[in-house]
């Protein structure tokens, strides 16, 4: 098997790809740790906090399940972002598209959960990191790193 002169193996990794990788990894770490924290917070602590905020007593149990669900989703998205970012760093264009799509969708959902008061405000850092990494990885300097002569556009 011969490699073409443009293959990612022969090119030095563009700095924009490395920057995007580290932004995604930082976002993944924040998501995993905050997801673990949110998902494992005591129900009594959440209940007390929701009562202090004036939440209707009938809806507290549902809100606690929703908040825990948000924590589990954050944890899972953090693991997936961490996994996919490694493949993107290696030069796989398919994983780049998948990770940018996941980043965009989750950024919108994270902003919505913060605005609705279901997630802490510091988690607005995550959409900033995800969107920044998604923009940086599509800079013109990174294009040769993701070109794959074996991959056809028909697939």
TrEMBL record:
Keywords: Membrane, Transmembrane, Transmembrane helix
Bilayer-spanning residue ranges: 21-43, 63-86, 98-116, 122-138
Keyword Membrane: yes
Superkingdom as given in the UniProt entry: Bacteria
Stated name of the protein: Uncharacterized protein
Source organism (scientific name): Antrihabitans stalagmiti
